[in-house]
# Entry
Amino acid sequence: MADIPIDIKEISGPERAAIFMMSLGEANAAEVLKHMDPKEVQKVGQIMASLKNVSNEKVNTVVSEFVDTASSQSGVGVDSDEYIRKMLTNALGEDKAGGVIDRILTTQNSKGLESLKWMDPRAVAEVVKNEHPQITAIVLSYLDSDQSAEILGHLPERARADVLMRIATLDGVPPAALLELNEVLEKQFSGSTSVSNSGAGGVKVAADILNFMDGASEASITEAITEHDQELAEEIQGKMFVFENLIDIDDKGMQTILRDVQSEQLIVALKGADDAIKEKIFSNMSSRAADMMREDLEAKGPVKLKEVEDAQKEVLAIATRLADAGDISLGGKGEEEYV
# Structure
């Protein structure tokens, strides 16, 4: 009896990456890892460590998809900040292009800040806890939202709301100030610098960080901000993206998200979801995958609320990353309105 062909859509994005990396050999895989950020290295590494008895057919399916994708890409590469600036300005207009340019180019010019991404959140909290809250706000604005949320959780409770408010009201950073901050960090972690970008902070950044805080911390910080500035608190809450908002994502976007979510992660996340969200997700799977997911969900025993919240936040992080990359459009909170 012939084997049933493997559908590439049933292999999540991270699992595909892990299988492909394992097929490269140690030296080549190491070269690829050098170009990945800390979160990607950790995620792919964890999956690589868990891979057991991957069939030749599965490896061939993954490698074939990579070859097809690579063949369709242009071989032309451009390494010029000025080219990128002009291209984006012409495409988006000067106002819209500014923020995008900052996000793209800041990473390569902020090596001191970049070094913090590889550190444990508790260690980063130790680095910034004695700094002025404005310095802490700038640092957290440049890190990924989930890491910033963990760092914020390790700061003294009385300081959290103040730092988050400063992030929400931060409207860019003078290049000279950013350069000085970067130099201080680099003296601790080594490297060189050439900072010329100043975009950082804002209500959306504060909302993204708050999204990753645990329920109790989120409520405490929101309450403290509301007491100080109710309008700002409402503005931050209006930009937040929560698990229930997944129902507003179109089917194509939902399918894109599901390709990057691991099955076990999704099962735990759905333990705390209402029926509407579950059906939204099941309807965007193949019939076989949906039936298996329903069975696994029924068989899953009680799960701690903290584990459910963490799993949901991980799914939201994937959705946010895909939205930032322009691969999907988020609905509900966290998404700009268009008329």
